[in-house]
Amino acid sequence: MDTMRERFAAVASRLLDEDPRLAVVLAEIGKDGFVAAQERHPDRVLNVGIREQLLVGVGGGLALTGMRPIVHTFASFLIERPFEQVKLDFGHQGVGGVLVSAGGSYDWPAGGFTHMSPGDVALMDTLDGWTVHVPGHPDEAEALLRHAAAAGDDKVYVRLSVQTNEAPRPVDGSRFLTLREGRAGTVVAVGPMLDNVLAATADMDVTVLYATTVRPFDGAALRAAVGGTGAADVVLVEPYLAGTSTAAAGEALQETPHRVLGLGVRRQELRRYGDMPAHLAAHGLDAASLRERIGGFLGTG
């Protein structure tokens, strides 16, 4: 199976052939996936070098001319380092585009903390009007990328990861999917967290919602799940900073007495390289840890 990044390069290259309004902007990272596309469209595949602020600024400039830019690099260099440009060159100028990240929270531990961005979605929450997609499988990444590319002038952030679920789900770019129904509580699994959540809750009487579009937050689906079980205990399992969506869940349930447990990447920096499974375990996001934490919160463990 190809990775999400490989699928992104292939799909974005095809989209360039199909839609003359699209342009891809890179900052060295990922350029090898666009060699053929750059030969076909030298004016719409732009590599600005290791200049991340310029990367986002060029994307915003293209949007001002009526283009639909697809801007790509690691999350730490796409959201954190040039955040002022994201805020001003897209938000303040009132233009849209598609920001596509890789690296995520712990995809490349050997790269160190400079190449990790567990706070990216929380940071995007400080800005207005952004849609955030977090696919859990390359097929979902393709569907959500196509959805984002065709989304008029909307501002969209697509967060890719090396971690994937075994099977794709039919995502539509808006709603949560109900994968299991139960009475003891509701667990929302975001993107690549799904398989570990399903394994952790296999013998628990819980509802499992699958979220690949986390902003806007599908409060209606959460309210329906809570209402259907009669329980207002909610666990959020996210592949980025723990608690990122806790406020959104609380707002969705403001008319219902509830408890929310936000699980995700811990704030404490891990200073050993290790590998992805080691980082998942250290953050309590492997199946065994999730079983203990979810079961303890819901009283089913």
UniProtKB/TrEMBL annotation:
One Pfam family per UniProt: Transket_pyr
Domain Transketolase-like pyrimidine-binding: 2-168
Gene3D superfamilies: 3.40.50.920, 3.40.50.970
Protein name, per record: Transketolase
Organism: Streptomyces olivaceiscleroticus
Lineage: Bacteria, Bacillati, Actinomycetota, Actinomycetes, Kitasatosporales
